[in-house]
Amino acid sequence: MNIRSLTRGDGVVIGAAVLLFIASFLDTYDSRFASGNAWDGLGLGLGVYMGGVIGAALVVAGRCLPQPRKVAGLEPGPVGTAFTVLSAWVLFWYLVDTPTSISAGSGLILGFVAALVAAAAAVAGPLVPALQAALIPAPKPVAPQPYGAQPPGGYGYPGGPQPSYGGQPQPGQSYGAAQPQQAQQAQQAAAFSPFWFAVPAPRPLYAEDGSPAPIAELSPGVWYLAVEQRGQGLLTEMQDGRRGVLQDTSNIQRG
C-alpha cells in the first residue's frame, strides 16, 4: 500500500467519512418527544451512515493498492463510489421526509452534508485536475555525495554498494579465452553505464518477460539502480534485489 498515491480528492473523501461517522452519534431529530441518534436503529446506523463510511474506505483502498483485488468482478473504487452516492441519496430523503412536528437534528443535517461531499469527491476526483494533485508531496531525493566523500551507507544511495558488472577470468580459464567476453562487456559498458536515479511520482515496474501486470512500484525519494537499457525503458534493480523494467522514464532524476 502506497499512501503517496493518494490525491486531494481522496483527502476530501477521508475527511467527509470522518464527519459522517461523528454525525451518526449526534441527534437525528431535534424534538422533546423524539431524540436519539442513528444507532437507535441498525438500518440507519449501519445501513446508511456506516455504508457511506465503508464506501469512502473502499474508494481510498482502491487508490492505495497497486493491484486492487476484484470481488465478483468488481473493483473497490467504483463500488465505494456507489456506496457514498447511495448514502447521500437516502439521507436526503430522510431530510425531506422529516415530520412537521419535529425538525431535523444536527446528526441528520451533518450526515447528509458529509455524505454528499464524500460522494461528490469520489465522483469528481478522477475528473477534476485540482483534485488529482498529490495529497502528500513527494520528498526530494537526497543529493548524491561528492566524489571521495563517505556515502550514507546501505543500498539505495548513489555511491553505496553496487553490484559488480563484468567479471574476472575464472581459475583454470586462459587469459586469451576471457578476452572476447571482456571485449563484449567493454562494448556494452561503452553503450550504457549503470546509474542511480529517482522518480518524481510513483511508477509501476514491469517484469522482464514483458507481462502487462506490474510486479512492484517505484516510490519518490528513493534511489534505484538502472543496470541496462531496454528499448525506451530501463532495467531497474530494487533494494531487495528484484529487477524489472521501468517503461516511463520521463523526468527521472539521475544521481
Structure in a nutshell:
The chain has helices at 8-23, 42-64, 76-96, 106-124, 175-191; strands at 29-30, 103-104, 195-198, 203-206, 214-218, 224-230, 233-237, 243-246, 253-254. The chain contains 5 helices and 9 strands, in the order αβααβααβββββββ.
Could you explain the architecture of this structure?
With about 260 residues, this protein is an alpha+beta fold. The protein folds into two domains: about 5-130; about 190-255, SH3 type barrels (Roll), CATH 2.30.30. About 40% of the residues lie in helices and about 15% in strands. The strands form three sheets. It has a five-stranded antiparallel sheet, with no helix packed on it. The two termini are about 25 Å apart. The relative contact order is 0.13. Residues about 145-150 and about 175-180 have low confidence and may be disordered.
Number of strands: 9
Shape: elongated
Tell me the radius of gyration: 27 Å
Give, in spatial order, the strands making up the sheet with the most strands: 8-7-6-3-9
Head-to-tail CA distance between termini: 26 Å
Helices, by number, come to 5
Q: Helix and strand string, N-terminal first?
A: HEHHEHHEEEEEEE
Binned, the helix content reads 25-40%
Main β sheet profile = 5 strands, antiparallel
Question: Helix/strand/pairing class, anyone?
Answer: alpha+beta
Query: How many domains in all?
Result: 2
pLDDT averaged residue by residue: 79
Strand content: 5-15%
